[in-house]
Design a protein that fits this description.
two-stranded antiparallel ribbon, single chain, 396 residues, 15 strands
Length: 396
Amino acid sequence: MAITGIGIVSPFGRGKAAALEALRAARSGIRAITSIDASALNCRIAGEVPAGALDDLHRGHDRFTRLALIAAEEAAEQAGDLGVDPERVGALIGTGLGGCETLDACYRRIYAEGSRLPPMSIPLSMYNAAAAAVSTKFNAKGLAYSVVSACASSAHAIGLAAQAIRAGQADAVFAGGTDAPLTTGVIRGWEALRVLAIDNEHPEDACRPFSADRKGLVLAEGAAVFVLESFEHALRRGAQILGELAGFGATSDAGHITDPSADGAARAMKLALRDAQLAPEDVGYINAHGTGTRANDPTETASIRTVFGESAPPVSSTKSLHGHAMGASGAIELASSLLALRDGFLPPTINLEKPDPACDLDYVPNQPREGRVRAFLSNSFGFGGMNAVVAVRVGG
């Protein structure tokens, strides 16, 4: 499946150029939260999209929908005129948490102020609001829905979009993910789980995947959207092909709701390789789920060892730079990986100062590494044991 458009809005800023520059500079986008009053929170840092990246764009929508529209607009501009019957264009947008901004405001009105809710509260907060907005914006009248599978949501959406095109259900699909979880209620919920890395004095150092001194994950927000279409259609209209969505693997741990499974992750990687008709030795890089939690990092390392043995390729977690954007993570990480690899470098895992003996792979520590690869995997694993892996061949 051809990738002909990429759009991203992230803690690095709006657009591909901002993301690529930050990845090459190994510059963290994690900072003190300013979009809400965080003074009463224990954790006051996050991967927050800079205020200037949103401006007044798409006012009237919830923040997670605004982010999706910004990313989709950039992807559409790059892809150009699809020349497709609108009934053959789809919109599949993953999200883990939906309209958190709207819901948080509603709960404040109900429980703190005792006031009535705005009439549009439900349409703004519903999980499919972003998919509906993207569909409407681009007159995509084909299949359109939201995918919700926690932190695997956008990877599932991208994989399902490719399958839909392959099955002849669409000629082109806007596919990706969005989340905007930086609200008081959501952050309080994550604080209660005791998995957040809290370093309010040094936010850029807080996310430390695969490091022995890692403290947990850092919440983030953002969106990434791709334009996917069949190779035949892309070549026929003379589109620039940025990469190939070559394979997709999805599994369930069918186990613990929060503890990850090396077996489930390994099976998803194997399925993605098989779908892409790639051998393990064809893969030159893996973008890890890499949350920086005690449970994820050694488990994911073990799963990679299961699939690749002693010949595992370089692995990195770009979450160390942009944080964990929940259901948008898979799309943001896929975009980050493809942008970096097309530019000739492997993105780094920053803050990796103290290697953990249980995490014994090459994690591209601290600085990007020059190099070119033909194919890579992007791993996304979510609560509930939801695993999604996409395999991508890098375009010229």
